[in-house]
Design brief:
This is SRPBCC family protein. It comes from Microbacterium bandirmense. Belongs to the AHA1 family. The protein has helices spanning about 25-35, 35-40, 135-140, 145-150, 155-160, 160-165, 190-200, 200-205, 295-305, 310-325; strands at about 5-10, 15-20, 50, 60-65, 75-85, 90-95, 110-120, 120-130, 170-175, 180-185, 215-220, 230-235, 245-255, 260-265, 275-280, 285-295. The chain is of the alpha+beta class. The chain has 2 domains: about 5-160, 2-Layer Sandwich (Alpha-D-Glucose-1,6-Bisphosphate, Chain A, domain 4), CATH 3.30.530.20; about 165-325, Alpha-D-Glucose-1,6-Bisphosphate, Chain A, domain 4 (2-Layer Sandwich). The protein has an 8-stranded antiparallel sheet with strand order 1-2-8-7-6-5-4-3. Strands 9-10-16-15-14-13-12-11 form an 8-stranded antiparallel sheet. Helix 7 (about 190-200) packs across helix 8 (about 200-205).
Amino acid sequence: MPVIDINTDTENLTMTVTAEFAAPIERVWHAYSDPRQLERFWGPPGWPARFETWNHTIGGRADYSMSGPRGETSRAYWEFLEINEPRGFSVLDGFRDDDGNPTADLPAMRMDFTFESAGEGTRMVTSSRFDSLEALQQVIDMGVIEGTRMAMAQIDAVLRDLREYAQGKGTRVEELDDTHVRITRLVDGPLDLVWRAYTEPELIKKWMLGPDGWEMTECEVGLKTGDRYRNSWAPVGDTEGEAFGFEGEMLLVEPPRRAVSNERMQGTDGPDVLNDVNFYEEDGATLITVLMEFPDKDTRDMILGTGMADGMEESYKRLEREVLAA
């Protein structure tokens, strides 16, 4: 976990984040000065950032938005106040409306990012300064402390070569809190083909089968926000088990990088599980990240206890073998 401390000072109206990275200062600077890299970790899981404009000069501005899993959007901006490559930079960070104007009822803050070498790595100190105690408390109430920890936990995948970070690691499951789980798997294939493998029924039936001995008997996909989908599986031959299936609604579809859906067992009233699937390609390999949101801890533990991760790993191996290498 890169974040080692988050401290709020109500007397001086500041919030200070201290983090350490296993990367040299020049590499960390590049991650913070390249919008395509920055947006991979600036938003917390479930709220990825997207920088729409980027004028990285003193007095320049960067506009970004963070998109929630149910279509919510939060818009913000940076105004660059100081730039001292590779030692740090300062911005005015605030919220904006649809027209790009600062939002008066939400707080703005000055953020000073400072990078310094620490052995073979880098220490970052980010100090945010507020105009009032009310503004500081408003940001805290919005969940910025936990959101910062979760967002920064994504940076390791950015600072390292993607294949070095994930290839050969299989399907990895991280319990983020009582109701959120992140699952990652690097597959050896380009983004466009991986997206097709997730959205074209003839390809889905080749790989999304879990352990050997099962077949997909029904595959109705949702290709746009609001579409319904339905998938069913049944055992083949002597394989033990009963047929089952899932159904739900597509909450957000952004080809070819993100698909969010709710999911429930067919023939039941739930509980619903939210699946937020994101795709990122680098050097011909695609990182698949699934953020699952459960209604409670008991549901999380019950579903993880079914051997779901093992079944996903078998499916991903089949994806590489039957679709991506075909």
